[in-house]
Design brief:
6 strands, about 350 residues, Dna Ligase, domain 1, two-stranded antiparallel ribbon, 3 domains, two-stranded antiparallel sheet, single chain
Length: about 350
Amino acid sequence: MKGSSILIIFSILALILAVVGFGGYKLLYVSNFETKKTVYVYIRQEGNFEDLCKQLVDSAGCFDIGGFKWVAELLKYPDNMKTGRYAVEPGMDNITLLNILRRGQQTATRITFNNIRLKSELAERLSEQLMIDEEDILSLINNPDYCDSLGFTIETIPALFVPNTYEVYWTIAAAKLLQRMYREYNTFWTDSRREKAQAINLTPVEVAILASIVEEETAVADEYPVVASLYLNRLKRGIPLQADPTVKFAVGDFSLQRVLYQHLEIESPYNTYKYTGLPPGPLRIPSIRGIDGVLNYMQHNYLYMCAKEDFSGRHNFAVTLAEHNRNAERYRAELNRRRIW
């Protein structure tokens, strides 16, 4: 074979190797995901590879899903998937993403649970943000022994949850999540807050119960310290709280616009028209602002409150029953005028 022929053959082989090498390099290291911002893919326990590929195409702007699959098969990834929530950055290449997926290198997710009334609502909100099933959460917070292990009852367990934004892994188990909430609860209840609670003869849980009533009574946050003080005045004097939200809770209908005498007769420990003191548990998960509104109450002598007749969401406060009755009559007259029964 002549030298020129050998040179041609070597040149062709070199070209083939270069093409193959470039193709391999491209499959491994050239950007395959173009998104305007970081997006996340979710792998559940069953580890469905095709579902992951669909997410990469639909959400992560994958150019060449076939190339991604080829590299994944090369690394034997489809048989070794790890559950989790994973970030796909703009411009990421196949090998970088697959290394993250293979290592189970999750990105934490932020969870929130504001404006929650019922435990079922809490479980639903958390399950929407995490891999946890609603029933896994409910089985714990409705278990008397488990609640007792944390220092709560099934009635008071909502006080464990301090509404805020928390970072956790999407795959966190229900029991570990509650342990995290327990640590956050103890962090929130600083010495300063505990001393303020002690000064008004309430435990942290009792503060949460009162804060939940306060928040149900008024949607105006600057009234929290005023309403809190009114109920503290009643507690000190042994006067029933007579808080309408506790009756709504007992009836099981927060949408009631008008609490009638028939509602006041319901037999329930939450009915503060029948029973003195605080109810057995919170009516809702109180906010930090609601709790601090109780701890930093405004000192006054009010014993009565009634919604303002202008339906502003604010209240008229009174020291005497006679003054309160006048306020209540104006409010009732406006309810009748607007035909709110």
